[in-house]
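Category: protein sequence paired with discrete backbone structure
Discipline: computational structural biology
Format: plain text, a pair of labelled lines
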Amino acid sequence: MVDLNQRCPRARTFLRRSLPLKIALAISSITLLLITASFWMVIYLLGQDFNDLQPLLASNGGMVHIPAEDLHARGHAFALRSWRVFAITLGVGALAASLFAWCTARLILSSAHRLANTANRISAHALHERLAPENNIAELEPVARAFNHMLDRLQDSFTRLSGVSSDIAHDLRTPIHRLLMVAQVTLDRPRSAEEYRAVIESAVPAYERMGRMIENILFLARAESQQSAVHATFIPLEQRLGATAAFFELLAQERGLELALQVDQSAHVWADDTLLTRATGNLLTNAIRHAHPGSTVALSGSVASNGGCHISVSNEGEPIALQHQARIFERAYRVESQSNEEAPGVGLGLAIVKSTMELHGGLVYVRSAPGHPTVFTLWFPPPPPRAPRAGPSRGRISR
């Protein structure tokens, strides 16, 4: 009943603004008026002829002889008047139909012109402009709404791109200014070879960090334009996650953490080995960075009954607030914390994870609450029905 009540106003609005319905009703009304007017005029003419014949009829009801010439003349006059009435009626009807067609065309063109004028005002500086579906005919309403949805997506992408560009420029400006200042101070006076070597060695980490940032930006750009090819194969889950855990074990030990691995034996995942390694590596990097000293970081993997695969990375650290969980996978979005200040990143790691999962047609999500571990989960969809079995491939660890 509620659904019916919700649909009735929409139906009434559509019927009130539907142009084909208005045209059909107008044509029906014009046709009915023409037929009614024609019948009325014929009856009126017949009544006039009958009144003209009344004086010739005898009062006693007897037959009255009317000359043939008079009957022929009266029939000819009646036919002329009838044709004249029909011609006038059809002419008025044609004029009314033409006027209605002209008004209808103006109505259609006015709606189209309003849409065009609004679209012409939309630019990079006026992305907030939207078409007004309720001010147009009902048939153009879906077009206006679809155009508005497209503008919403463009505005969201433009806003995120502007924010990311600003964040990346800020992240690149700081190390470049630092390197430039060190170089200027070093070149201010002659120095020994050992001093020059020390300056170059101190600049290497900054160059590596900028190189990783540029590589990550290129990966995200290719992923969004679907230029990154996904070469998916069956990957032994225990072997791949074991190699990834072994790579990060030393980093975990340096921070006083224990790295635990829990993987179903004989489990396989249908994924690109390089992209899988990169995604799990980014999650482990974040988990180790934000985990409390002396806690455990767990890397686990399991296969569902339908062939899909779940890979989870959990750590015992500060929980992620609910307002941050919805945006944590956006580019250059970082949750400020003490661990971030100690080991700052560029805010692209989780965005790369999300893009990787989108390339695979999968999902990534996070669960975090006070008193519980923070868990990031990757879900890889089942393999295609005729996916060829492949041996284990060895991909490098990308961070």
